[in-house]
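User: I'll paste a sequence; please echo it back and then give the predicted structure.

Assistant: Echoing your sequence first, then the prediction.
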Amino acid sequence: MAQGDNGKVTFTAGSKAKKDIEQFLNEFDKKRKIFQGTPVSHGKTEGKVKIILGDFNSFDILQKEIEKMEPGEILVAETTSPDLLLACKKAAAIVTDQGGLLSHAAVISRELGIPAIVGLHNLTKILKDGDMIEVDADNGTVRKLSKHFVH
């Protein structure tokens, strides 16, 4: 990788280059307002973000996170599994970093009749609990709104 700074060019390779590229992309993503994914259950809604990161090995921790979730919040997760079913039922919409048309999030959201978008890569690292977002699952977009609410 080549980097320029004040007329000086430096070259890096390997893990250092990978780390620098990831840091640049993360900073770039944090400034973005609109994110594109794969719509898997149509509809459109706005709401507060509730991020639940999947430590599916610790059921107690996961249950506490689900209990903190308010009905009508938007579930943002890396992926979903049967362990997150109660959170899915509380959610106004589901958005995930991973998944496809036949993923757990896709099937459950269609059964529940709520909007869902999957394949948003690192959205769980960009959004925070309480952020307001618009989920447009007709077009596959998640838009970060200017408001932020704290639990």
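The chain is about 30% helix and 30% strand. The beta strands are 2-5, 8-11, 34-36, 38-41, 44-51, 74-77, 93-96, 116-118, 131-136, 141-148.
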